[in-house]
Specification:
binds FE2/S2 (inorganic) cluster; disordered N terminus; four-stranded antiparallel beta sheet; alpha+beta; 10 strands; 21% strand; Rieske Iron-sulfur Protein
């Protein structure tokens, strides 16, 4: 009596394709095991932001984000008191990679008179220069204007006004949340990120 055809090995198939008791092939089991082994690594890699998308890190150098000097380092001497904000991105110090893959990484830089900088904000400033998220916390427009008081910055879209001398606090709405501050330091005049953003970035999520 012949064995049933269900257990018969197809001579055209490789041994590694033999059916196991679960109905799986040895090859597919091996592939599955390998996939399970690699899956956490792949998920970790997917979750790891690229250098361009990563948020500013201590040691990053600030570089101009636009204009003729885009990509060039920003120094304290490039900024004057009372003028409109300048815009910058952080750049990895080792690789020079500019972190411009996320708009939320753009920062505004303004220089203030020392008397206009609060005790809370001073440790995060560098020779009168302060750095904040450039993205308005109302609807996400860039914050582009300097108030005539030479201390506050204004979003041109709906007029939200933020006190650059005091932690980016709101002085005029409609925004309801302050700007995130980016602690910086000066190294031989160059502006360097001292710590990650403090505060939430961008408008509230709906
Ligand atoms: S987006 Fe800035 S005030 Fe509305």
């Amino acid at each position: 009596m012949h064995a049933g055809t269900g257990n018969r090995i197809d001579p055209d198939r490789d041994a590694d394709d033999e059916l196991g008791t679960c109905g799986c092939t040895r090859r597919s089991l091996l592939a599955g095991a390998l996939a399970l082994t690699l899956a956490p690594l792949q998920v970790a890699a997917q979750n790891e932001p690229s250098a361009r998308n990563a948020r500013p890190r201590p040691g990053d150098r600030l570089v101009f984000s636009d204009g003729e000097r885009a990509g060039q380092p920003v120094s304290v001497a490039d900024l004057a008191i009372g003028v409109a904000p300048r815009f910058a991105y952080p750049a990895d110090a080792a690789t020079q990679t500019v972190r411009d893959g996320s708009r939320l990484n753009q920062v505004l830089l303004v220089r203030l008179e020392d008397k206009d900088i609060s005790d809370q904000t001073r440790p995060h400033s560098a020779e009168g220069v302060v750095a904040y998220s450039a993205i308005c916390t109302h609807y996400g427009c860039p914050v582009t204007l300097m108030h005539e008081n030479k201390r506050a910055v204004i979003c041109n879209c709906h007029g939200s006004t933020f006190d650059a001398g005091n932690n980016g606090e709101i002085t005029v709405g409609p925004a309801t949340r302050r700007l995130a501050i980016l602690p910086i330091k000066s190294v031989d005049g160059a502006l360097i990120v001292a710590a990650p953003f403090i505060g939430r970035l961008g408008p509230p999520q709906e």
